[in-house]
Amino acid sequence: MRPRSLGAGAGALLLLAAPAWAQVPGLEVELVPKVGFYAPAADLQAARDAAGEIVDERGGSLAVGLALDIGVPLAPVSFRVGADYVTSSEFTYAEEGGDLEATGEQTMLALAGDIVLRPLPRLIVVQPYLLAGAGVKRYDFSFSEPDGETTIEEAFPESQTDFTIHAGVGLDLGIGPIALVAEVSDYVSWYEAEGAEESEMQNDLFLMAGVRLGLF
Asked: What's the rounded Cα separation, in Å, for the pair 216 and 163?
């Protein structure tokens, strides 16, 4: 299944889950659509094969996200389920010290469940918050491969899914029944390229802005 289909499915599940949560007395359910920028904090680890050491460089990209916040009104802690999707990040792949070089695209879908902590009362207009949780992160790769070369496909699979830790900070600006939202978060995982001896930590940063809409 391609990541666009996974992203659409995740969004549909969040929307379908909202009415079910709304049936629980005393709960507040809010929808948070977001858009922003994806910035990988480091390149994926080098891979080794018969051609020698392979290195890669990834660029930033447009990102979109959708979250569902569930909590008790005025409580300092709530629960969130969310999805963030990287539309298309340019990928440069080269053999270190060699002539092989190719470019392609990487997309990424991250799904996480988070605890949201609001240290200040929710009655104020501007409210900071922290979030922390875990989930899964899926990379998908596609390359424009030079004729006659196969090392690119050998070094990177078509897709890879890893466990991820999610942490971030955000700010709500209340405006009547809605709130403007700004968030910075990091999905931390351990990526192991094909042929590598061990995995390495990978940080994927999201800088997002959106709105918080009260549903129930």
From this structure: 32
Report yes or no: 202 and 191 within 8 Å, Cβ to Cβ: yes
Q: What is the pLDDT of residues 36-83, one digit of tens each?
A: 999 988 766 654 443 445 556 677 889 999 999 998 877 889 999 999
* Cα–Cα distance for residue pair 152/44, rounded to 1 Å: 14
Backbone phi and psi for residue 3, each to the nearest 5 degrees, phi listed first = -65, -30
DSSP at 14: H
Three-state DSSP state, 155: helix
CA 104 to chain centre: 20
Residues 6+ apart with CB under 8 A from 27: 21, 70, 71, 72, 216
> In the chain, at which residue ranges do the beta strands (DSSP E only) sit?
28-40, 47-49, 52-58, 61-71, 77-95, 101-117, 126-144, 159-175, 178-191, 200-214
Model-level pTM?
A: 0.79
Give residue limits of the domains in the chain.
3-214
CA–CA gap between residue 149 and residue 126 (Å, rounded): 55
How far apart (Å, rounded) are the C-alpha atoms in residues 191 and 177? 42
CB 74 within 8 A of CB 122: yes
3-214 placed in CATH 3.90.79.10: no
